[in-house]
Amino acid sequence: MIRIVTTPRLESLECASRTARDQVREVAGSANEAFGEHIRELYALTDRAERAEATTSEVAAILKRAMEELAAAQKELLLTDIEIRRLRQELESERLEGRTLTVLLHHGEPHTVYRYREDAYADTATHGVDAWGPASERPAADVQWRCEAFIYDAASNGFRRAFMPAPEPIGGGA
Q: Of 24, 111, 120, 137, which has the maximum CB count within 10 A?
């Protein structure tokens, strides 16, 4: 089959092809712009994802350290609780009758209480207090520092001085 194409037909085909090319260019330009926008969004999302991942890693490290510190604190608290219970049992099991305490007196007023005499001597020596001279008949208020022993008295449910000074007669009476 042979087809005869006339000049007006060729001109209309050329015009249609130019229009189609223009439309192709417009569509290609729009497609390139859309592709560029998608690439920019992809980069932005990738950057946000990387920052979020870095932040997550930092938070995980901080949380791990906090958990380790919490575990150490709980362990220390447990050990302290065990020690407190042990000391309470020790105190409750000891007999109070005859137990002595050493009190550091400053001008006759209680300053510090020690469970053992050796603890009193060691502690006061570190502070430069010479408080363990021989006990004298001088009143405690006249002596700057003095260590005195107190003993538990079950009858009074409290402590009293282990060495009571000799009573002085009142008004010269005998």
A: 120
Question: What's the Cα-to-Cα distance from 134 to each of 8, 111, 127, rounded to whole Å?
Answer: 140, 19, 20
Beta bridge partners of 160: 151
Share of the chain above pLDDT 90, in %: 40
The H or E element that residue 153 is part of is: strand 145-153
Nearest to 113 by CA among 166, 152, 141, 142: 152
Token duo for residue 8: 């007006």
Please name the amino acid found at residue 17: S
pLDDT tens per residue across span 140-161: 777 777 778 877 776 766 666 6
* DSSP conformation letters of 43-105: HHHHHHHHHHHHHHHHHHHHHHHHHHHHHHHHHHHHHHHHHHHHHHHHHHHS--TT-EEEEEE
Joined together, the tokens standing for residue 155 give 């009858």
